[in-house]
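subagent[fold] <- orchestrator: predict structure for attached chain, return tokens only, no commentary.
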Amino acid sequence: MQPINIAIAGAGFSSKVFHIPFFKQDSRFNIVKVYERTSNNAAEWLPNAETVRDFHALLTPEIDLVLITTPNQTHYQMVKEALLADKHVLVEKPLVASVVEAQELAALAKQQGKVLYVYQNRRWDSHIATAKSIIEQGLLGEIVDAEIRFDRYAKTKNSKVWKEAGDRGTGLVYDLGVHLIDQAVYLFGKPQAVYADVRYQHDGALVDDNFDIQLYYANGFKIVLKASKYAREPSPTFVLHGKLGSYVKQNADNQEELLKNGVQPVGESWNAEPQEAWGILHTELEGNVVRQPYPNSVASYQNLVDDLYQAIAHNAEPIIKLDEVIFVLSVIENVFESAKSGSKIQL
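subagent[fold] -> orchestrator:
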């Protein structure tokens, strides 16, 4: 099969850090064009790609896949136009700001016979991949509680104006909450109810910058999802408790930092974490209580690229399914409703 020709909409942080490094070194893909309104970043990162100033210039016959990394507010229209132009689409999360828009785009992708794939790369964070393995092996027994956090420290508001303008589909819940909710659904399935506290802590904030989301499941199981921009000293990234034991990982996944520092994602060990960064497994094994560092499962954001290729080239069922994407957006809508009403909402 010929390489899949990619056109990229947007050449900012997301393109540079999360997308281009993987596609550049993968012979199954070929980056042909980049849409930038005014900047010329692509000329440095992708000297063989054409820079265009009009999004519609990406939708030419030789393009197979359109990658959309532009601000959240532009996703709906761009995804729709790309699908109508008979292109596969990979779009940064969130897909869109509402369930109604997501359902419309999912139906359009099905009608066009094209892959619509949402970039939920954090399913392949080290703690999530490792927790998935631990749960499947039953190492903790029946799971009773979990907490997933995404803590950062930012003394001031984001310098990107579009992220702070207060538009629908922006703010920390849509930025990081969409990852945490997706991780919860990936690990444990769909919750039955949600309760949330959403706050605005930066001076003059027009978008949320702190949240505490509680997801309720059958048999009393609950997941707590938290994120803050005022966590100079972060809490554990991942905590999982079962009736036999616990798994706790203090450190966040290292892939973003490696990619930001120019490390190329080549080979299985490119993102291997040192033992001191592994999580701790404290449980019973063969009748003995053990507490020890637990090796990370082998996983990286390359897994998403591999899955995308299989979906496009071989019509395989993608790991990230649109019905799950839509469900996550429905949870987000209910997060804000719960925060407004102060009540638990059934899903």
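orchestrator: received. Logging for downstream: The chain has a mean pLDDT of 94. The longest strand covers residues 143-151.
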